[in-house]
Amino acid sequence: MMTLDRLLLIDDDVHLIQALAEQLERWDYNVFTETTAKGGHERVLNESFDAICLDLDLPDGDGLDICRSMRRRGFNTPVIMLTASDTDEDTIRGLGAGANDYIVKPFRFSVLLARLRAQIRQHQQHDDVTLNFGPYTFKPTDKYLANVNGQRVRLTEKESAILKHLYRKGTLVSRDELLGAVWGYSAEISTHTLETHIYRLRQKIEPSDGSRRLLITEPGGYRLDGEVRTARRA
């Protein structure tokens, strides 16, 4: 099954991040925590996350510096700044450093959850993002898969669109939905057309023994299986 979205919480308030981590894990997120700027910066540069919640004021540094460092290195992971200050100046500083959103403490968990979901969803909608699943990285804009050895598997436009839609849904997708998403709602397109493309796609991405480990058929539709998470935008 698909892996959980990975979240990094960087805040020196230990009780806050422990409470947030527990609540977010109940919503099926994989949560990691750091309480210092140094620790958070190292995690950001060496690991992949789907979103980061970053305190503005840390005991050994400035959260803005971490955000600026990420952006300079090309990391486009969504960042939500957390701060006790609600001044316009701090908001402008946070957004100017590259933050995607800004939440003032204290805040309701439901608000943070909604903001996180929105930022992750928006980030994953960009076609220049590199997606990872199973042994492959997938670049929708370039229409190819690359395995761990760097070997590329070329995809047709329709094959790329099928993979992209299945990845972004993250669950079972009906045949009718796939037809509508990839071909548009045309009376001339049949489920046989979809099944043919699914078959050809399997020939490219599944193991040579014929097993179905990544692209799964279930009653009612298709889904992707395998280790999945979103990496950074190119």
From TrEMBL:
PROSITE patterns: OMPR_PHOB (PS51755), RESPONSE_REGULATORY (PS50110). Pfam families: Response_reg (PF00072), Trans_reg_C (PF00486). Residues 128-226 form the OmpR/PhoB-type domain. One of its GO terms (molecular function) is phosphorelay response regulator activity. Keywords: DNA-binding, Phosphoprotein, Two-component regulatory system. Gene3D superfamilies: 3.40.50.2300, 6.10.250.690, Winged helix-like DNA-binding domain superfamily/Winged helix DNA-binding domain. Residues 6-120 form the Response regulatory domain. It comes from the Bacteria. CDD domains: trans_reg_C. This is DNA-binding response regulator. It comes from Sedimenticola selenatireducens.
